Amino acid sequence: MEQGALFNCFTIFGLYNNGCFRLFQVAERLSQPGFKLKGGILKKVLITGPEATGKSKLARQLAQHFDSDWVEEYARTYLNKNGPGYSRSDLDHILRGQLDWIQQAEKGQNECLFCDTGPEVIYIWSKHKYGVVSNEIERAADEYRFDKVLLMNIDLPWEHDPLREAPSLDERRIIFNRYVSFFQERNIDYTLISGSGLDRFSSALNSLKC
């Protein structure tokens, strides 16, 4: 069973619910293989990496391409609501919110789900910023798994955002290497996504094909 095709389409409207975006489209399907599902079971794809690497854009693009859903990054909504200042204890709240949004989205009718970050982002940022990780975050990072992991490279230009904190290339390299170590230490396979614009999207799309 395969999910996905290339769409020649326009978007009618988007529906927002619990951080999950559904794109409804009028589309002409053009025959093209998508990525295969495991016996019809929901396949969760994680899009992750340091700040300003195009995670949200790619998650949205893939969801549109596969006529599916995506879960946005809860941290951005949390900080927009409560202000950019936060403490280490806020990271536990952000973790719970992210996992809740993913769990809610899993109840949908689609067989694939694209997740804009997971517990690993909170784990790595807590390590980087505070030098420690709470038991709750560490447990989630160690136990929660996705079917496919796309790690975004830091080859895109930095774009200023009031919620971003690590603009220097040296610091971005340090954080990126933390992601690589995180996945290697847990024997989690990942695909590195590089390039800009259409090349970045094509790289991600090709990584999902069987």
Task: Describe the model.
- This protein has 7 helices and 9 strands; from the N terminus they run E-E-E-E-E-H-E-H-H-E-H-H-E-H-E-H.
- The longest helix has 18 residues, at 88-105.
- It has 210 residues and is an alpha/beta fold.
- It has helices at 55-65, 74-82, 88-105, 119-130, 135-143, 169-185, 198-207, and strands spanning 2-3, 6-17, 20-30, 35-36, 43-48, 69-71, 112-116, 148-152, 191-193.
- The strands form 2 sheets. Strands 2-3-6-7-5-8-9 form a 7-stranded mixed beta sheet. A two-stranded antiparallel ribbon has the order 1-4.
- It has a single domain (2-207), classed as P-loop containing nucleotide triphosphate hydrolases (Rossmann fold).
Question: How are the elements arranged and paired?
Answer:
Blueprint: E1 2-3, E2 6-17, E3 20-30, E4 35-36, E5 43-48, H1 55-65, E6 69-71, H2 74-82, H3 88-105, E7 112-116, H4 119-130, H5 135-143, E8 148-152, H6 169-185, E9 191-193, H7 198-207
Parallel strand pairs: 5-7, 5-8, 6-7, 8-9
Antiparallel strand pairs: 1-4, 2-3, 3-6
Helix pairs in contact: 3-4, 4-5, 4-6
* Count of individual domains: 1
Number of strands: 9
The proportion of residues in beta strands is 15-25%
The N- and C-terminal alpha carbons lie at a distance of 11 Å
Order of helices and strands: EEEEEHEHHEHHEHEH
CATH-assigned fold name: Rossmann fold
Largest sheet: 7 strands, mixed
Structural class: alpha/beta
Strand order in the largest sheet: 2-3-6-7-5-8-9
Top-tier CATH class: Alpha Beta
Radius of gyration of CA atoms, rounded to a whole number: 17 Å
The CATH superfamily appears as P-loop containing nucleotide triphosphate hydrolases
**What is the arithmetic mean of pLDDT?**
84
Q: Helix share of residues? A: 40-55%
Give the second-level CATH assignment, the architecture. Answer: 3-Layer(aba) Sandwich
Q: Count of DSSP helices?
A: 7
Low-pLDDT residue spans: 1-18, 20-38
Molecular shape:
globular
Keywords: ATP-binding, Nucleotide-binding
Pfam families: AAA_28
InterPro entries: NAD_biosynth-regulator, NadR/Ttd14_AAA_dom, P-loop_NTPase
GO molecular function, one term: ATP binding
